């Protein structure tokens, strides 16, 4: 299973020069906790950072800054972990854990933004797979009772 199969393709984006207030409004409008920061590079829209609701709280509210005077590029996370659409889910989960991040932009072969995947998405996928495994156990028990009835 690849990240590209499961990532959210409707990714909310901003640019570094956009205002924090606009970014926060986009988060509210789209009901998301993060926005991918992009730049146009070599004909593709490439991710260069991420801005989270936590960044807004820690960097703006807690620091008592005027949000009208701060741009996205001033507080976004620059150490960006990305995943290729062809990367495996398990590999991506391990990399996320290693870096301590919950959201990862997904890029295509050219480095352009293809989507985003989060720890919530991975949890949902893995929970579904575990549910299938429990069904297997129940089916095995039913088959056993059919094939080897009690004596």
Largest sheet: 3 strands, mixed
CATH architecture annotation name:
Roll
Alpha-carbon distance between the two ends: 44 Å
Q: Stretches where pLDDT falls below 50 for ≥5 residues?
A: none
Which structural class is indicated by helix and strand composition? alpha/beta
Domains, number: 1
Short summary of the structure?
The protein is of the alpha/beta class and 151 residues long.
What does this structure look like?
The protein is of the alpha/beta class and 151 residues long. It has one domain: CBS-domain (Roll), CATH 3.10.580.10. The chain is built from six helices and six strands, in the order H-E-H-E-E-H-H-E-H-E-E-H. The protein has helices spanning 3-6, 20-30, 53-61, 72-75, 89-99, 119-147, and strands at residues 13-14, 34-41, 44-52, 83-84, 103-107, 113-118. The strands form two sheets. The protein has a three-stranded mixed beta sheet. It has a three-stranded mixed beta sheet with strand order 4-5-6. Helix 5 (89-99) links the parallel strand 4 and strand 5. The longest helix is centred in the last third of the chain and has 29 residues, at 119-147. The mean pLDDT is 91.
